[in-house]
Amino acid sequence: MIQILHLVEANLITEPEQTLELTVQTCLLGVGITLLSEWDVLAFVYRHGASLTSADQIARLIGYEKTVVGGALDRLERQKLIERSRPSHGVHEVRFYRISASADAEHRRCIQQLFSLSESRAGRLLLEKRLKPVRPDAGVKGGDYV
Asked: 143 versus 71: which is more confidently predicted?
């Protein structure tokens, strides 16, 4: 009988975690984010609001190579998660970046849930667990992601 109670308690504890993981996975797939670098770049744009910057500056601030950030920005724009202006033709190719305003209520809800989740350490760890790391040949500074 005691063993059955322990099993029931264990299921009650892990059930909310499994539900949360499923919700996170569903939201990530729904918005089209599969790579950790995409999430990191999207979170940067979200946290900094509308910004006038370059892929190189973002890369230096979040620790990825410029090519990784540039690719993530391209994918996020194609997914309509961010909006960006045409590049200036100066030395640094500065652009205006901001989070897109989605017309789809479910899409907005998922994005908001993911950002809320990322405010806690446990949430960030769950997101990291669910997203694919950057490939070793993609140029992450310090080789943190394998």
From this structure: 71
